[in-house]
# Entry
Amino acid sequence: MTKRVAVIGECMLELQGEPFGAMTLGYGGDTFNTAVYLRRCGAAAGIEVAYATALGEDSLSAGLLERWRDQGIDTGLVRRVVDRMPGLYMIDVDASGERSFRYWRDSAAARCYFDARVTPLEAEAHGFDALYLSGITLAILPEAGRERLFALMAAMRERGALVVFDNNYRPRLWADRALARGAFERAFELATTALVTADDHQALMGLPDIDAAIAQAKGLSAPEVLIKRGAASTLVRAAGDKTWHEAPTQRVERVVDTTAAGDSFAGGYLARRLAGEGAVESAIHGNRVAARVIGHRGAIISAEAMGDLV
# Structure
């Protein structure tokens, strides 16, 4: 049976290379990365993925749409906004291989998604079995947009859809931590599944250590909660189960690039969960996908590099 998933967020243009030298133009973003891995891992099970965002009417936006379709992503939920363009980020790599990012996104089209009276996502939400968003999705939207998204989460949960919130927390995107905390708390309350990265939760809540963050995350009200702890096993409390279980991570011989580790975990996990597998088994698969991704350079690795996982 076909399952349809709507993923909402921002996919940005990516510049890699030497400043004032040769640069390569790519694209990426946390929720978009998840959409790609979810589509790859779930295609055989009939899972379809649509990406909801806003783009401009420029050639770069058109190029993004073309490439998203090549990845198997449904672009029917994308809004085109006049006089806006995609956001942009540049990756700097220092002598030791550490990456840093510079962003130009304040006037990006994605921020305007809910400026329409009715967005494509709101109009078509009844046709989707699941909704996925992240803390970055919340951060890029103005207050009115966040309220519309919260209302959509509530409506989809009410009719029995899966509503998944991933707690990606980036302090630079928020005016202050209190505002972010309030938005995250509402999202956690509305979600049916909470994907929690422990160190992000610690930073957001101002907790003294990871153990305190894990303890607080275990008290979240979402029916299903997964707590990601880096190389340590993932903690899983499945919907309808009061017991916490552990999903082991995979040993990686050489970590090349940790970009999209959490994004790919979410994609792998949701693909198996929507296909009917148990929460722990799905989390194990998510960890396998993440391990494969961090062994390669780039947020979105080639489909051939993960053929045995899909």
Remarks:
- Residues 143-158 form the longest helix (16 residues).
- The chain has a mean pLDDT of 94.
